[in-house]
Write a structure and sequence with these properties.
By secondary structure, this protein is an alpha/beta fold. It has a single domain, classed as Glycoside hydrolase/deacetylase (TIM Barrel, Alpha-Beta Barrel). Helix content is 32%, strand content 15%. The protein contains 9 helices and 12 strands. The strands form 4 sheets. Strands 2, 3, 4, 9, 10 and 11 form a 6-stranded parallel sheet that branches. A two-stranded antiparallel sheet has the order 1-12. It has a two-stranded antiparallel ribbon with strand order 5-6. Helix 3 links the parallel strand 2 and strand 3. Helix 8 runs parallel beside helix 9. The longest helix is centred in the middle third of the chain and has 17 residues. The radius of gyration is 18 Å and the shape is globular.
Protein backbone atom coordinates (compact mmCIF):
# COMPACT_ATOMS: atom_id res chain seq x y z
CA UNK A 1 0.00 0.00 0.00
CA UNK A 2 2.82 2.43 0.87
CA UNK A 3 4.53 1.61 -2.39
CA UNK A 4 1.37 2.28 -4.40
CA UNK A 5 0.79 5.60 -2.63
CA UNK A 6 4.36 6.61 -3.43
CA UNK A 7 3.82 5.70 -7.06
CA UNK A 8 0.59 7.69 -7.24
CA UNK A 9 2.23 10.69 -5.63
CA UNK A 10 5.13 10.51 -8.06
CA UNK A 11 2.72 10.36 -10.96
CA UNK A 12 0.73 13.44 -9.99
CA UNK A 13 3.81 15.38 -8.98
CA UNK A 14 5.38 14.72 -12.33
CA UNK A 15 3.85 14.62 -15.75
CA UNK A 16 1.18 12.16 -16.87
CA UNK A 17 2.06 8.51 -17.33
CA UNK A 18 1.94 8.20 -21.06
CA UNK A 19 2.23 11.86 -22.16
CA UNK A 20 4.75 13.14 -19.63
CA UNK A 21 7.73 13.47 -21.86
CA UNK A 22 5.98 14.83 -24.95
CA UNK A 23 5.70 18.56 -25.21
CA UNK A 24 3.29 18.54 -28.17
CA UNK A 25 -0.31 17.45 -28.15
CA UNK A 26 -1.28 14.34 -30.12
CA UNK A 27 -2.12 14.87 -33.75
CA UNK A 28 -5.70 14.62 -34.87
CA UNK A 29 -6.73 11.00 -35.44
CA UNK A 30 -5.60 9.70 -38.80
CA UNK A 31 -8.34 8.25 -40.96
CA UNK A 32 -8.97 4.54 -40.55
CA UNK A 33 -9.75 2.51 -43.65
CA UNK A 34 -13.38 1.94 -44.52
CA UNK A 35 -12.73 -1.79 -44.55
CA UNK A 36 -11.26 -1.71 -41.04
CA UNK A 37 -14.22 0.21 -39.65
CA UNK A 38 -16.66 -2.03 -41.44
CA UNK A 39 -15.17 -5.13 -39.85
CA UNK A 40 -14.65 -3.65 -36.37
CA UNK A 41 -17.08 -4.97 -33.74
CA UNK A 42 -19.91 -2.66 -32.70
CA UNK A 43 -19.09 -0.99 -29.40
CA UNK A 44 -21.67 -0.08 -26.76
CA UNK A 45 -22.69 3.53 -26.31
CA UNK A 46 -21.61 5.53 -23.29
CA UNK A 47 -23.95 5.20 -20.30
CA UNK A 48 -26.95 7.51 -20.40
CA UNK A 49 -28.45 9.52 -17.62
CA UNK A 50 -25.41 11.44 -16.44
CA UNK A 51 -26.11 15.16 -15.90
CA UNK A 52 -24.90 17.45 -18.66
CA UNK A 53 -21.45 18.74 -17.85
CA UNK A 54 -20.95 16.20 -15.08
CA UNK A 55 -17.25 15.38 -14.56
CA UNK A 56 -16.16 12.09 -16.07
CA UNK A 57 -14.98 9.59 -13.47
CA UNK A 58 -11.65 8.16 -14.56
CA UNK A 59 -9.82 5.09 -13.28
CA UNK A 60 -6.17 4.08 -13.54
CA UNK A 61 -6.33 0.29 -13.35
CA UNK A 62 -3.80 -1.92 -11.64
CA UNK A 63 -2.48 -5.16 -13.15
CA UNK A 64 -0.54 -8.08 -11.64
CA UNK A 65 0.84 -11.28 -13.11
CA UNK A 66 0.62 -14.64 -11.40
CA UNK A 67 3.06 -14.74 -8.48
CA UNK A 68 5.97 -17.16 -8.52
CA UNK A 69 5.79 -17.75 -4.78
CA UNK A 70 8.58 -17.42 -2.22
CA UNK A 71 11.50 -17.22 -2.50
CA UNK A 72 11.17 -16.44 -6.23
CA UNK A 73 10.15 -13.01 -7.53
CA UNK A 74 8.34 -12.71 -10.88
CA UNK A 75 7.98 -9.27 -12.48
CA UNK A 76 6.60 -8.14 -15.86
CA UNK A 77 8.43 -5.23 -17.48
CA UNK A 78 6.22 -3.19 -19.81
CA UNK A 79 7.28 -0.22 -21.91
CA UNK A 80 5.27 2.35 -23.81
CA UNK A 81 6.56 3.43 -27.22
CA UNK A 82 4.35 6.48 -27.59
CA UNK A 83 5.91 8.45 -30.44
CA UNK A 84 9.23 10.02 -31.33
CA UNK A 85 12.41 7.95 -31.17
CA UNK A 86 13.70 4.83 -29.40
CA UNK A 87 15.85 4.70 -26.28
CA UNK A 88 18.51 2.28 -27.47
CA UNK A 89 20.05 2.21 -23.99
CA UNK A 90 16.99 0.29 -22.84
CA UNK A 91 16.47 -1.82 -25.97
CA UNK A 92 20.14 -2.86 -26.15
CA UNK A 93 20.11 -3.79 -22.45
CA UNK A 94 17.03 -5.95 -22.85
CA UNK A 95 18.61 -7.76 -25.80
CA UNK A 96 22.12 -8.10 -24.38
CA UNK A 97 20.87 -9.26 -20.99
CA UNK A 98 18.20 -11.50 -22.53
CA UNK A 99 15.44 -9.84 -20.51
CA UNK A 100 11.92 -10.34 -21.90
CA UNK A 101 9.49 -7.42 -21.95
CA UNK A 102 6.11 -6.30 -23.30
CA UNK A 103 6.27 -3.23 -25.54
CA UNK A 104 3.14 -1.14 -26.23
CA UNK A 105 3.49 0.58 -29.61
CA UNK A 106 1.44 3.29 -31.30
CA UNK A 107 0.96 3.66 -35.03
CA UNK A 108 2.87 6.95 -34.74
CA UNK A 109 5.93 5.23 -33.26
CA UNK A 110 5.79 2.41 -35.80
CA UNK A 111 5.94 4.88 -38.70
CA UNK A 112 9.21 6.45 -37.52
CA UNK A 113 11.14 3.57 -35.93
CA UNK A 114 11.56 0.80 -38.52
CA UNK A 115 15.05 -0.18 -37.30
CA UNK A 116 13.99 -0.58 -33.66
CA UNK A 117 10.89 -2.49 -34.74
CA UNK A 118 13.04 -4.83 -36.83
CA UNK A 119 15.22 -5.53 -33.78
CA UNK A 120 12.16 -6.35 -31.68
CA UNK A 121 10.68 -8.61 -34.35
CA UNK A 122 14.03 -10.37 -34.68
CA UNK A 123 13.76 -11.43 -31.02
CA UNK A 124 10.27 -12.92 -30.62
CA UNK A 125 11.54 -14.86 -27.60
CA UNK A 126 12.12 -11.56 -25.81
CA UNK A 127 9.54 -9.07 -27.03
CA UNK A 128 5.77 -9.18 -26.93
CA UNK A 129 4.34 -6.24 -28.90
CA UNK A 130 0.96 -4.88 -27.89
CA UNK A 131 -1.42 -2.05 -28.83
CA UNK A 132 -0.85 1.52 -27.56
CA UNK A 133 -3.28 3.10 -30.00
CA UNK A 134 -3.40 4.94 -33.29
CA UNK A 135 -2.49 8.51 -32.30
CA UNK A 136 -1.78 8.28 -28.56
CA UNK A 137 -5.08 9.81 -27.46
CA UNK A 138 -6.64 9.04 -24.04
CA UNK A 139 -9.25 6.30 -24.40
CA UNK A 140 -12.11 8.12 -22.69
CA UNK A 141 -15.44 8.18 -24.52
CA UNK A 142 -16.68 11.56 -23.27
CA UNK A 143 -15.31 15.03 -24.02
CA UNK A 144 -12.84 15.81 -21.24
CA UNK A 145 -9.22 16.61 -20.56
CA UNK A 146 -6.83 14.07 -19.06
CA UNK A 147 -3.88 15.97 -17.58
CA UNK A 148 -4.82 18.75 -19.98
CA UNK A 149 -4.88 16.38 -22.98
CA UNK A 150 -8.12 16.17 -25.02
CA UNK A 151 -9.59 12.68 -24.76
CA UNK A 152 -11.05 10.69 -27.65
CA UNK A 153 -14.43 12.03 -26.59
CA UNK A 154 -16.88 9.47 -28.00
CA UNK A 155 -17.32 5.70 -28.35
CA UNK A 156 -16.59 5.95 -32.08
CA UNK A 157 -13.37 7.88 -31.43
CA UNK A 158 -12.26 5.33 -28.82
CA UNK A 159 -12.91 2.56 -31.36
CA UNK A 160 -10.82 4.41 -33.99
CA UNK A 161 -7.95 4.86 -31.53
CA UNK A 162 -7.97 1.20 -30.49
CA UNK A 163 -8.74 -0.48 -33.82
CA UNK A 164 -6.49 1.89 -35.73
CA UNK A 165 -3.56 0.94 -33.52
CA UNK A 166 -4.31 -2.75 -33.98
CA UNK A 167 -4.56 -2.40 -37.76
CA UNK A 168 -1.24 -0.52 -37.91
CA UNK A 169 0.45 -3.33 -36.00
CA UNK A 170 -0.81 -5.95 -38.43
CA UNK A 171 0.31 -3.80 -41.35
CA UNK A 172 3.84 -3.78 -39.91
CA UNK A 173 3.97 -7.55 -39.60
CA UNK A 174 3.25 -7.73 -35.86
CA UNK A 175 1.09 -10.60 -34.59
CA UNK A 176 -2.46 -9.74 -33.55
CA UNK A 177 -2.49 -7.86 -30.25
CA UNK A 178 -4.26 -9.11 -27.14
CA UNK A 179 -3.68 -6.11 -24.86
CA UNK A 180 -4.43 -2.40 -25.18
CA UNK A 181 -3.01 0.39 -23.08
CA UNK A 182 -4.24 3.89 -23.78
CA UNK A 183 -2.39 7.20 -23.54
CA UNK A 184 -2.20 8.40 -19.90
CA UNK A 185 -3.37 4.91 -18.79
CA UNK A 186 -6.67 6.44 -17.62
CA UNK A 187 -10.14 5.41 -18.78
CA UNK A 188 -13.79 5.76 -17.91
CA UNK A 189 -15.78 2.61 -17.17
CA UNK A 190 -17.77 2.70 -20.41
CA UNK A 191 -14.61 3.05 -22.52
CA UNK A 192 -13.14 -0.01 -20.80
CA UNK A 193 -16.26 -1.94 -21.78
CA UNK A 194 -15.93 -0.68 -25.36
CA UNK A 195 -12.27 -1.72 -25.56
CA UNK A 196 -13.13 -5.16 -24.19
CA UNK A 197 -15.91 -5.46 -26.79
CA UNK A 198 -13.29 -4.89 -29.48
CA UNK A 199 -11.48 -7.99 -28.23
CA UNK A 200 -8.74 -6.50 -26.05
CA UNK A 201 -7.90 -6.66 -22.40
CA UNK A 202 -6.80 -3.38 -20.86
CA UNK A 203 -3.26 -3.32 -19.49
CA UNK A 204 -2.86 -1.47 -16.25
CA UNK A 205 0.23 -1.70 -14.08
CA UNK A 206 1.21 -1.84 -10.41
CA UNK A 207 4.42 0.26 -10.36
CA UNK A 208 5.04 3.46 -12.28
CA UNK A 209 8.72 3.11 -13.07
CA UNK A 210 9.52 6.49 -14.59
CA UNK A 211 6.44 8.78 -14.42
CA UNK A 212 6.37 9.31 -18.14
CA UNK A 213 10.19 9.36 -18.44
CA UNK A 214 10.23 12.46 -16.22
CA UNK A 215 12.02 11.07 -13.13
CA UNK A 216 15.78 11.31 -12.52
CA UNK A 217 17.76 8.11 -12.93
CA UNK A 218 18.16 7.47 -9.19
CA UNK A 219 14.41 7.72 -8.60
CA UNK A 220 13.66 5.32 -11.46
CA UNK A 221 16.18 2.81 -10.15
CA UNK A 222 14.54 3.01 -6.72
CA UNK A 223 11.12 2.34 -8.25
CA UNK A 224 12.45 -0.73 -10.02
CA UNK A 225 14.00 -2.07 -6.84
CA UNK A 226 10.66 -1.68 -5.05
CA UNK A 227 9.09 -4.38 -7.25
CA UNK A 228 7.65 -7.45 -5.54
CA UNK A 229 6.42 -10.81 -6.75
CA UNK A 230 3.68 -10.36 -9.37
CA UNK A 231 4.26 -6.66 -10.05
CA UNK A 232 3.85 -5.07 -13.48
CA UNK A 233 6.13 -2.09 -14.14
CA UNK A 234 5.45 0.62 -16.69
CA UNK A 235 8.22 2.76 -18.19
CA UNK A 236 8.90 4.45 -21.50
CA UNK A 237 11.23 3.43 -24.31
CA UNK A 238 10.74 6.47 -26.54
CA UNK A 239 12.76 9.17 -24.76
CA UNK A 240 16.46 8.56 -25.47
CA UNK A 241 17.54 12.01 -24.22
CA UNK A 242 15.93 11.71 -20.78
CA UNK A 243 17.80 10.64 -17.65
CA UNK A 244 15.01 8.19 -16.83
CA UNK A 245 16.38 5.73 -19.37
CA UNK A 246 19.62 5.45 -17.44
CA UNK A 247 17.63 4.60 -14.33
CA UNK A 248 15.67 1.95 -16.23
CA UNK A 249 18.91 0.28 -17.31
CA UNK A 250 20.32 0.35 -13.78
CA UNK A 251 17.05 -0.97 -12.38
CA UNK A 252 16.99 -3.89 -14.81
CA UNK A 253 20.57 -4.83 -14.02
CA UNK A 254 19.97 -4.54 -10.27
CA UNK A 255 16.89 -6.74 -10.45
CA UNK A 256 18.64 -9.33 -12.60
CA UNK A 257 21.50 -9.47 -10.10
CA UNK A 258 18.93 -10.22 -7.40
CA UNK A 259 17.58 -13.15 -9.39
CA UNK A 260 14.25 -11.60 -10.42
CA UNK A 261 12.35 -13.63 -13.02
CA UNK A 262 11.33 -11.31 -15.87
CA UNK A 263 8.24 -12.26 -17.87
CA UNK A 264 5.97 -10.89 -20.57
CA UNK A 265 2.25 -10.45 -20.11
CA UNK A 266 1.64 -13.36 -22.48
CA UNK A 267 3.75 -15.73 -20.37
CA UNK A 268 1.50 -15.96 -17.31
CA UNK A 269 -2.06 -15.21 -16.30
CA UNK A 270 -2.56 -11.53 -15.49
CA UNK A 271 -5.39 -10.00 -13.47
CA UNK A 272 -6.54 -6.40 -13.50
CA UNK A 273 -9.11 -4.41 -11.57
CA UNK A 274 -11.91 -2.17 -12.93
CA UNK A 275 -13.12 -4.98 -15.25
CA UNK A 276 -10.03 -4.62 -17.43
CA UNK A 277 -9.29 -8.35 -17.76
CA UNK A 278 -11.21 -11.60 -17.97
CA UNK A 279 -10.34 -12.27 -14.35
CA UNK A 280 -10.49 -9.55 -11.74
CA UNK A 281 -7.54 -8.79 -9.50
CA UNK A 282 -7.81 -9.76 -5.85
Amino acid sequence: MIRLLFTSAALFAAVPVAMAANTTLPAAPAPVSTAALATAPTVPSAPKGAPAGAPTKLVEPHLHVLKAGKPAVRVALTFDACMGKTDMRILDTLINQQVPATIFVTARWLRTNPEALALMLAHPDLFELENHGLNHIPAVDRPTLVYGIPAAGSPDAVAREVQGGADAMLAHGIPKARWFRGATAKYDASAIAEIRALGFEVAGYSINGDSGASLPAAAVEKQYLSARDGDVLISHINQPTHASGEGVVKGILDMKAKGVQFVRLEDFAAKGDDNTTQQAAR
